[in-house]
Amino acid sequence: MVKICCIGAGYVGGPTMAVIALKCPNIQVAVVDISVARINAWNSDTLPIYEPGLDDVVKQCRGKNLSFSTDVEKHVSEADIVFVSVNTPTKTQGLGAGKAADLTYWESAARMIADVAKSKKIVVEKSTVPVKTAEAIEKILTHNSKGVEFQILSNPEFLAEGTAISDLFNPDRVLIGGRETPGGQKAIETLRDVYAQWVPMDRIICTNLWSAELSKLAANAFLAQRISSVNSMSALCEATGADVSQVSHAVGKDTRIGPKFLNASVGFGGSCFQKDILNLVYICECNGLPEVANYWKQVIKVNDYQKTRFVNRIVSSMFNTVSGKKIAVLGFAFKKDTGDTRETPAIDVCKGLIGDKAKLSIYDPQVHQDQIQRDLSMKKFDWDHPVHLQPMSPTSVTDVTVVWDAYTATKDAHGLCILTEWDEFKKLDYQKIFDNMQKPAFVFDGRNVVDVEKLRKIGFIVYSIGKPLDEWLKDMPAVA
Ligand code: NAD
Ligand code: UGA
């Protein structure tokens, strides 16, 4: 029986391995992690991540051909194929700080593999890494191998959170990069045979190592660029009276452009878009390509601009001050159907409002108070490092309360802002919310989920990203 071990039981390692186990009953899959709490959760009824459909898949395989363990070395030494799906955060110190990927966790995983391996192994880069990482990993493995043969493959993951299980069941493509040597090609075939148990062959793309590594960074950069493009248009829509949803619809009808990923928002978030573009920018700079680096940097600048613009809209609408005012924040996760808050635009928006002395009442159906407090008190990029390397006990932010429903959050509030597009925010009783708020009552919709006309009829002053402006906001500056 083929044995797979995956180092890193996170958002990628857990779901991908669970699906491999489900689709390949002839393969034994072990997912390992240094975090005891995470592994305990994977072995319990409350999984460490919220992902629709994941519970079902795990329940079907756990205890059969899927296991979760902290015995990293044992499972690595027994495996034929070792996936490495550890975090690859942005460096916070030293050379390339604030841009380059920090490969500390990857390197220590590689050294451990070399240390414990007694039989030949295929080592698969599942984490998103800079181009040419495989070369560095290969060197670490071969210089420490004690004669064991290793083949390195790049097999980046394209799943999106919230739809991870359907993305894994039915991927647009699976990408496998390997060395153009007989050994490298054989390793590619071995991994291809795993995916071929449920993915049609014409969707499995095999390339050289560097193309696979770069394609992952490029795909995320292209996706983020689409959002910054539509968000830049949203600012122009507000200035001209155009409606960004109508513009997106009209533009997306061109089959060369396509309709997906054109929703204007308060900004993109998530653990990867910003990190991977910063990484791409750094690689361009290191390769003497400053024009290319600056081109991609702009995608992040527009994203930051969009978040600042949103905060400024709120403050300027509310008589240029939110000091001491209660503002309800509906939604904190970086998108709907996940409890993940990594790089969520809500962090920057809330910090902006707190900076203006607002009192926030936050509600998100999947995010707990501890997480929100951590996020609002942590420094940029610290979140992607293991807990033991993060600040000991971040001081809690006093002007923030976290509540468990939207009606409590909005009671007596001066304004409410929607920062995540949870379906339940579309169905709220806005008349009831209006009746219980201070007047004038403001709605700031960062996700275009509310029916603007309906809310204006109730009496709200409504700002919705990229939509024709409320009379109230017309002469107010969008960016201070
Ligand atoms: P994560 O932080 O959820 O999981 C990483 C896990 O690796 C953690 O549980 C950590 O404890 C563990 N780990 C770190 N070093 C270890 C070691 N030496 N031994 C054992 N375990 C170790 O991260 P994630 O979101 O799963 O992302 C992992 C990688 O996949 C990143 O490179 C990311 O860019 C990429 N990626 C993420 C997504 C996503 O949607 N989150 C999608 C595609 C690609
Ligand atoms: C993204 C990519 O979609 C995945 O293919 C990739 O594997 C993953 O990053 C990764 O490498 O981590 P994810 O971040 O989970 O997936 O979620 P997305 O659906 O891409 O959303 C990212 C952010 O963009 C969210 O904040 C979302 O609200 C925002 N977004 C998305 C918009 O503002 N407008 C849109 O039209 C689409």
UniProtKB/TrEMBL annotation:
<comment type="pathway">
    <text>Nucleotide-sugar biosynthesis; UDP-alpha-D-glucuronate biosynthesis; UDP-alpha-D-glucuronate from UDP-alpha-D-glucose: step 1/1.</text>
</comment>
<keyword id="KW-0560">Oxidoreductase</keyword>
<dbReference type="InterPro" id="IPR028356">
    <property type="entry name" value="UDPglc_DH_euk"/>
</dbReference>
<dbReference type="Pfam" id="PF00984">
    <property type="entry name" value="UDPG_MGDP_dh"/>
</dbReference>
<keyword id="KW-0520">NAD</keyword>
<dbReference type="InterPro" id="IPR036291">
    <property type="entry name" value="NAD(P)-bd_dom_sf"/>
</dbReference>
<dbReference type="InterPro" id="IPR036220">
    <property type="entry name" value="UDP-Glc/GDP-Man_DH_C_sf"/>
</dbReference>
<protein>
    <recommendedName>
        <fullName>UDP-glucose 6-dehydrogenase</fullName>
        <ecNumber>1.1.1.22</ecNumber>
    </recommendedName>
</protein>
<dbReference type="InterPro" id="IPR014026">
    <property type="entry name" value="UDP-Glc/GDP-Man_DH_dimer"/>
</dbReference>
<dbReference type="InterPro" id="IPR014027">
    <property type="entry name" value="UDP-Glc/GDP-Man_DH_C"/>
</dbReference>
<dbReference type="Pfam" id="PF03721">
    <property type="entry name" value="UDPG_MGDP_dh_N"/>
</dbReference>
<dbReference type="Pfam" id="PF03720">
    <property type="entry name" value="UDPG_MGDP_dh_C"/>
</dbReference>
<feature type="domain" description="UDP-glucose/GDP-mannose dehydrogenase C-terminal">
    <location>
        <begin position="328"/>
        <end position="452"/>
    </location>
</feature>
<dbReference type="InterPro" id="IPR001732">
    <property type="entry name" value="UDP-Glc/GDP-Man_DH_N"/>
</dbReference>
<dbReference type="InterPro" id="IPR017476">
    <property type="entry name" value="UDP-Glc/GDP-Man"/>
</dbReference>
<dbReference type="InterPro" id="IPR008927">
    <property type="entry name" value="6-PGluconate_DH-like_C_sf"/>
</dbReference>
<comment type="similarity">
    <text>Belongs to the UDP-glucose/GDP-mannose dehydrogenase family.</text>
</comment>
